[in-house]
Amino acid sequence: MATAMASCGNDKVQSMTSFTPGAFGWCPDITDPRDFPFTQGILTKQASTHTPPSNALPNHETDPPLPAIQILDEETLQLFQRSDGPAHSTAAVMSLSLVDWISRRWRGIPMNRSSKFLYQMTIRTQGGGGVMGVGLRATLKTLVRFGAPPEPMWPSHSPSPEVPTDPMLFAFQSDFADLKFYRIDDRCRPATETLFAIKQWLASGTPCLFGFSVPDCITSQSWIPHEHDRSGILGGTAAIAMGYDDNFVVNAPQPDLRGALRVRCGWGEQWGDHGYGWLPYRYVLERWASDFWGVLYPQWTSTLE
Length: 305
What we know:
Layout: E1 3-5, H1 11-14, H2 40-47, E2 69-71, H3 90-107, H4 115-125, H5 136-146, E3 180-183, H6 191-203, E4 208-215, E5 233-251, E6 257-265, E7 276-280, H7 281-285, E8 289-296
Parallel strand pairs: 1-5
Antiparallel strand pairs: 2-5, 3-8, 4-5, 4-8, 5-6, 6-7
């Protein structure tokens, strides 16, 4: 059983290496009935063309039990986060990093695309300008609508104008036209069902996007403390869930927090376990983590393993 010590109001944390995250910019998505929900038919269609798809939502009481531990291939994930890029672009960084993982996993082809372009175009489609946070839904919609050019064509460190204008930058929309994204969490359902749906998606073999509120007591350790009643919030950040462990325990002054998601944040490899860490299930159950989105390319993923 994996065990970690974490506490916001504990001297033990104060002695740990202090850490200030430098990447935020995630804004929670409001509920939209037009979102495509994650249903059993999504996995059924991917796994077999001979089985009729089901529109049933994940249900922990009727669906087959899930494995207690599921960790996906972390070596395939290449995080395109530049230290000199937009600090509020985590939604774009994580979205493109997940698409790259899917492409590497199923086609063996990398897709190193410009997160700065995607971030700037997402802001533009929302009628904003300058530096601001964006949601994952808006980011994924922008990716399908406009695509994203290769990183060298619109590098994150370049002194580029605020709005991309070169027509060549928009010539890659077809690479993302068939991308499908599904809302995994549902605020109208119990949080326990949301957690089960997240684990079910991860158990199918594909990571998912999400965002969470970052407590001001976070350290460089590879687990994220959960004591929102005793700490402030630094901001929201997007992340990628790469798996889960029902037996992972974070010890704190309150009763043990059992179970955690394996996550990749955009804070560089100096945080956690080379950029990876553990987010207690409590974040999901208390809705401090939300906007879980699954992304698929149906023409690439004929089967899910």
